[in-house]
Amino acid sequence: MILVTTETIPGKDFEALGMVKGNTIQTKNVGRDITQGFKHLVGGELKAYTEMMNEARALATKRMVEEAEALGAEAVVCVRYASAEVMAGAAEIMAYGTAVKFK
After folding, report:
1. Which InterPro entries does this entry report, sorted A to Z (predicted)?
2. Beta-strand runs (E) in 14-89
3. Alpha carbon 16 to chain centroid, angstroms
């Protein structure tokens, strides 16, 4: 499966099959949340949250690809990511784009 953020893929003609998306809502356990809260005092990267967001993006992308494959797509163009805080310490990640089939 080819994933691109552009509207085209050089050298490829395709037809759009429709929008596809994948999402997940992730949170860290309360113990990790407390330890990450201490970073507010000293500064620095919140590594547990960085890891959580990387895992969430990977899962959302996987779900988007699965939806595209179910349509018979060979690629997804215009891939975008969006995130939103659902509650303290929990975030939703959505991956979306246009599923396409090569001509």
Report:
1. UPF0145_dom_sf (IPR035439), UPF0145_YbjQ-like (IPR002765)
2. 14-27, 75-87
3. 21
